[in-house]
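Hi support team,

I submitted a single chain yesterday and got back a structure, but I'm not sure I'm reading the token output correctly. Could someone confirm the output below corresponds to the sequence I sent? I've pasted both exactly as they appear in my results page.

Thanks,
R.
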Amino acid sequence: MKRKILILFGVILWSFCVFSKDLNIGIIFDNNSNFSKNIKELLQKELNNDFSKTGYIPKITRIGYLNENNLDQLLKEMSKSKELDSIFVFSSSKPENYKDLSRNKLYFFPLNFEKSQKAVPRNVSYIYGELDLQKGIEIMKQIPRVSQINIAISNLSDSDIKKLEEKYQNNSVKINIQKATREFLEESERENIPTLLVDYEKSLDKYAFMGYNMDQELGKRIKASVLNYIYFKTGQGINKIEEITSPEGELFYNEEIGIQIGYNLPLSVLQEVSVINKKKVELKKLDLKTAIEIGLKNNLEILKKNQDLITSKYDVNVSNSYRLPQLSANIDGTFLDKKSNDVVFNKAQQNSAKSYLQLSQVIYSEQLNTNVYLSKLAMESKRSDLEQQKLDIIYYISSTYLNILQLNAQLKIQESNYDVLKESLKIANINYKVGSGGVQDIYRLESSLSEAYSNIVSVKNQIKQSTIQLNTYLDLPKNQQYSYEELENISRYFVFNRNFSSFFVNSEKNSAIEEFLLKGALENSNNLNIIENEIKGKKREYSAAGRERIIPTIEAFAQYNKDNMIEPWGKNRNYPPNGEDEYWQAGVKITLPLISGGEIHYKRKSLQSEIDSLNYSKKITESQLSQAVSQAFNEFLTNYIQTYASKQAAEAAAKNMKIVKNLYSNGSINITDFLDAQNNALSQSLENTIKNYSLLNSILKLENLYGKSSLTMSKEEKEQLRNQLSGILKEYK
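Hi R., thanks for writing in. Yes, this is the structure output for that exact sequence:
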């Protein structure tokens, strides 16, 4: 049996060796550049893919560069090589005479933009596609103040350039077309003339104002050439390709050149192009802790709450001031005309005035003591309100900051998805135009691409809105932008981090940690403190109302009087009769209500009812806080676990997508399978991103409920909290 297997294997190997044949290939380039290196790689890859089932083994064995050499001379030299089976010419030059080409070799000229004016031999693959520059010209004509457009094109003869100039010339804008060279592009830049570039050489892109992205076009032409090669070698099932559609690829806009020459594309057309060489904007770095510091200093809500606290401090001083001596100066005056004296009093009545100084001192007042006590409680409630506002602002700023980071991560994912779909659309277009794919693939990818672009716009808008929200919290200009911290760096701020992964191992640990957090939340709760202060205040009012009937209000007073200030200082001749107009008095005032119509009784009943209501409010708040802590803790644990699961799922989906993408490029799977894999990779990547940020958000919630933030804790406070948590974890195995 083994012998039969060995014989069979030997037969297969012999057959492969006999029937497979090496195809040595030569390539001619204008020069040795990155362009030529990329072309070589693309061509070899396409040859390997398309010839894999033909029995031929194509190999690029020779490369020639024109530089200062003539194309015809280099073609003759390569044609003499007996080893070469075919020659690919990737040059802007063209042969003068096809008759000089060897009949024993195959020749490929894939980069042409016009039909050959000469008869092309059967062993020559001359592939062309007539240029359609209308889209690029129309976009550039929308730029204000543009009177001339320079167009740089490779692989065109002088006669065809002249024809194109005549075709696109119009009255509003002068069209000047020349062969694509760096010198021509740089001259246009110096003269502040916008250029439109149509060239396969990517190195020229950085000198052009706008241009066609020729990657798709290049891939399309290479594939068409290789299919023709197969046709030449096998003649089975493939028609010779000559004319293909003109370059319709995506236009690019060079922002750097636009700034230099003083022209910018209108916003209305920017979405129709891709932007290269974007102006780099140096954004101010805003880390999370700095954002918190700015927010605590500038936030208007905090400033208001702080001002309320200052007001309450003054209110305490006002209440205490009534315990101190009260001194007042008073003047009373009466001025009557003579007629009124006679009618009213039937006697002469003098004008009079009196003045007096009054001094009072509260010795004991239950109401006064109660008011002072209530004002102090009110101040403490304002302080708790301020502290809660600080905690809330820390949470809002942190949550918004993390949301921006999450959205930026989503944007990168969506842009990457867009690029993959765009690249796949290029492949689909190439496959369709060379006859190896259906138009339905193009339609589906175009639809997916539009949706992907819409998603990018949506995420960018969300980033803008979140940035405005963050700046509002910080009381900074609404559209101010920043660069932000990395997620991993932010996670180190928090006491709750991956060091506490043992939470999930033991349910008792989880319960103990949850109980610890709830206890801390109840102790640190500012809202509970406010309710407690309200209860204390009502209880004090209740006791004061009871003591009001048994403990009097005691007040000492003194008064100095001068009854007449019209006459000179001293005795008044008429009033009082033969009396002194200066005198004083002093005494003690004691007040004790005896009958108030039931006011005190019903006041106490009302206060007791308020106390009962506040106790219910306290219990409700405690219950709500307990529920919130439990939910936030479970959310934290769930997110913690899901971050690992989502990471693995995203990595697996990305690996699968890489395989599927190659299979689709080779034509091994259909568009449905490709899009399914792409959508799965996108959703898994987004899910992983969301889970990572959801984990940190759940930590923020926990700390807000606990009443202390890692972002404002001292090192000592953090260490103490870590030790407390570690101590709880050590109790359970």
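A quick pointer for reading it: Residues 1-19, 568-573 have pLDDT under 50 and may be disordered. Let us know if anything else looks off.

Best,
Support desk
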